[in-house]
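By convention, the token line describes the chain's fold. To illustrate:
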Amino acid sequence: MSVALGMLQKLRVGYLAELPGRLDDIEENIMGLEKFGFVEENFNTLFRLVHSLKGSGGTYGLHVISDICHPLEDMLSDLNDLPQKLTKQFIDIALAYVDLLREIVDDTSLHGDCRMDPANRLKVLRKKAFPEPFSALIVERSPAIIGILKENMNVLNAKIEVMDDGYLALGRTLAHPFDYLITSFEIKRLNGAALIGALRLAQGKTPQTKTILLTVNPLTFSTAVKPNHVLLKDSQFQRNLRTLLAMPK
């Protein structure tokens, strides 16, 4: 063995020895998110720890470490864009990535090289972390409101269609059930409350579509219409929208 190769092997052994401690730090910071919520300073520390670990894996020939850290870092990037994504499920998935990293470290330390193939488990975790995008039909006439809706829903990779006619929108929802129908009360021909009421009748007792009614006045529609959510077009509109979209679908 050459001197350079021997030195690299020694560094690799040292790197493996320090990994459990680094994983403890990552896990502690993830648990901190669960305990204290999204605190920017704490989040930044966690992100730096994961980013550093992702980079160091390749340096020592442990590319599998980088492969696991990459989707975890993607999750954290999404959380930074939309802190409302901080849920128990988020914490559980993040900790599952750390558990997988621990298994890789144990396997590599035992055999001198990684014999595990984490591909299937990574596939399952990624599917949980980044579920299929939901679909939404926006029925609205205001370009400003449409812009706010699209901006916030694009962060979630939603498939979005936009219409401004309630009558045509009803036909569209009956032909193609959407995960969400977001409609303003103030639209053409069939107002938002009537659109939701008609959709409720059509879908029966087990509606496939969650409905969100946008209005400047919640008293302008009959109590017989029961949208899943009502959002006022006020100064808190965007904040309330983000909170709503962060809820489990």
